[in-house]
Specification:
This is Ketoreductase domain-containing protein. It is found in: Membrane. The protein has 423 residues and is α/β, with parallel strands linked by helices. The protein is 46% helix and 15% strand. A hairpin with a 5-residue loop joins strand 13 and strand 14. The longest helix is centred in the first third of the chain and has 45 residues.
């Protein structure tokens, strides 16, 4: 039996009724009618254009028939896979997880023993003027790497560069750049390669945040666009220009994603999305680049930085410190040190690890989100929102922090002050 892919249904308007009983069903593939490339109809050994058919007082329509043999076969295949895939996956996990975990454990020991010697290597660090980026400069400097530090605050970069030299870096250059601008990203890579002659590590660290309910954002979405331009596109632009040089040196890329890519705190929807996009992009890029360039994706929890200090992008485009809103978002969760995080990142990059979550206990939050998503969402709504009509700063998450006095215990002293670096 032939598969019917489509048909022409012609109605004769001169007939008292134009319902389907008076319709002439003409199948394209049964020889009764065909349609040519100029959209004419060939009917009863005569060719008629669609305009002619209309002038005859007939109405016509193209009817797609998608219930053929091929479609029925595909439906059966999907039904089969729906039944087989879950059990196949379960038994695959049972048999494959133990040897894979053992192999990865053995591989991690080898990587620790034969980790990369960073002395003399050339490292670009974006967002190096504060927080994790600043301490990455110090950690790479201690290990003898040559550094290209980039951010928008040149004065802060110069101070960090001086300290990195004191800690052991043989050569440090400072490049003022805004990674949200593609030309700046091209320039910072070119200046680095022109100065050092090579590039070994690219650390995509630059990032900003905003605390804003989605419905309260400016209608032109400029606030959210700025987040994506810096957090996502800034890393993509810089990586695009750095990849040819990294392939020449068999180099590495370090990407600063976030645990926010799966623990979706309210009021930071686009920040969370930018970090999830980074993970998806660089997971894909790892496949494309293969063994030529290794990629380490870092997903920190709450780490000592200007973001956990409460520095957020405002509706007017300026950065301001809002520590009350910071308290609502972070609450009583312990904030890790930037220096410890930087040390763990450089260790992982030197070993060629694929992923790093710091502090490591934060990995458990992924399991909670995976297996109990409703519970996670309910807990956020319960803790992060105040009663209707009350200010956001009266959310239970902040009240708990204030009542217990935990801020002095779980927050490093560096983020308790509202003072931030300025040029």
């Amino acid at each position: 039996m032939a598969v019917i892919s489509s048909a022409v249904v012609i109605y004769n308007n001169s007939s008292p009724s134009t319902d389907t009983r008076n319709a002439i069903d003409i199948r394209f593939n049964d020889g009764m009618a065909t349609r040519t490339v100029d959209n004419s109809l060939h009917l009863n050994n005569a060719t008629h254009t669609t305009q002619e058919v209309s002038s005859y007082g007939w109405e016509f329509s193209i009817v797609n028939r998608t219930t053929g043999f091929l479609d029925q076969t595909m439906d059966l295949i999907h039904k089969f896979l729906n039944l087989v895939a879950p059990s196949f996956t379960f038994f695959s996990f049972v048999f494959l997880l133990p040897p894979i975990y053992f192999f990865n454990f053995f591989l991690s020991i080898l990587r620790s023993v034969f980790s990369e010697n960073l002395a003399g290597k050339v490292v670009v660090i974006t967002g190096a003027s504060s927080g994790i980026g600043e301490h990455l400069a110090y950690e790479y400097g201690r290990r003898g790497a040559r550094l290209a530090l980039t951010a928008r605050r040149e004065k802060s970069l110069q101070e960090i560069a001086d300290r990195a030299r004191d800690l052991g870096s043989p050569d440090v250059i400072v490049i003022r750049a805004d990674v949200s601008k593609v030309d700046d990203c091209r320039r910072l890579v070119e200046e680095t390669v022109n100065h050092f002659g090579r590039l070994d590590h690219l650390v995509n660290n630059a990032g900003i945040n905003t605390v804003c309910m989605f419905e309260d954002a400016p209608p032109d979405m400029s606030l959210f666009k700025a987040i994506m331009d810096t957090n996502f596109w800034g890393s993509v632009y810089t990586t695009r220009f750095a990849v040819p040089h990294l392939k020449n040196s068999k180099g590495k890329i370090v990407v600063m994603s976030s645990a926010a890519s799966w623990m979706n705190d309210p009021r930071t929807s686009v920040y969370n999305a930018s970090k999830a996009a980074l993970t998806a992009f660089f997971d894909t890029l790892r496949i494309e680049l293969g063994s030529e360039v290794k990629i380490t994706i870092v997903t920190p929890g709450f780490i000592e930085s200007e973001i956990t200090q409460g520095k957020f992008l405002q509706r007017d485009g300026n950065m301001e410190v809002q520590q009350d809103m910071r308290d609502v978002q972070v609450s009583s969760i312990p904030v890790g040190s930037a220096s410890g995080c930087a040390q763990a990142i450089v260790n992982s990059a030197s070993k060629g690890d694929r992923y790093l979550t710091q502090p490591s206990w934060f990995r458990m939050t992924y399991l909670w989100k995976l297996f109990f998503p409703e519970l996670v969402e309910w807990s956020y709504r319960l803790s992060h929102f105040s009663r209707p009509g009350a200010p956001h700063q009266q959310a239970p998450s902040k009240k708990i922090l204030d009542f217990t006095g935990l801020k002095n215990v779980v927050y490093p002293s560096s983020i308790q002050s509202p003072e931030i670096k300025t040029d």
